[in-house]
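Quick illustration for those who missed Monday's session on complexes.
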Amino acid sequence: MPETKIITLRLPFRMGSVNCYLVEANSGHVLIDTGSSNRRAELESELANAGCRPGNLKLIVLTHGDFDHTGNAACLRERFGVIIAMHRDDSGMAERGDMFWNRTSGSRLVGLMAPILFRFPQSNRFRPDLYLEDGDSLSEYGLDAQVLSLPGHSRGSIGILTAAGDLFCGDLLENTKKPAINSIMDDAVACQASLAILQALAVGTVYPGHGLPFSMASFPANGGGSAETGI
Ligand SMILES: [Zn+2]
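Prediction with zinc ion bound:
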């Protein structure tokens, strides 16, 4: 497992917190998710403390297009000259600031996320530099890891699986109270298929978008029900 710094940032409106993962890559760093813009200064100081500077932050990978994971990507691209990678099927969320772009079931999400939506200003929107697909390797960016397509929470949700078997799962799974499927699922059938993919792979530790790392071996076969929070 490459050395990984977990940066946990509080979300607005008492919505809990979100994780960003700064992963040590060959001669640089890869940042997986960027948090929400309300804690930008905190993220920037954490990155500075870890030695990130223009030139050695090689890549930003976004596990999906929600504002709480993409809120600082545009700003960091400007500051570090880094490229932003994500799946094409979530790119409209980032380009338009519309978290319902390419999603099918908006109603529950609307209630939970509407207060935040107006806070994804034009300056936080961006067009990704690189589209990632299932099976893509990140070795070009110094990280021995591959992309897994894990739709469910959103159509373009991806996970990053390192060669050592550690998984950055975005918002497919969470561990805010216990390891579980994220309570917000756009497509429950796709979610189960994504979970089955993970259960067939040799996944060791799971690093979720929300909550603490957990062992995949301890994840309940039935998905663990759903927890109460998670965006
Ligand atoms: Zn989230």
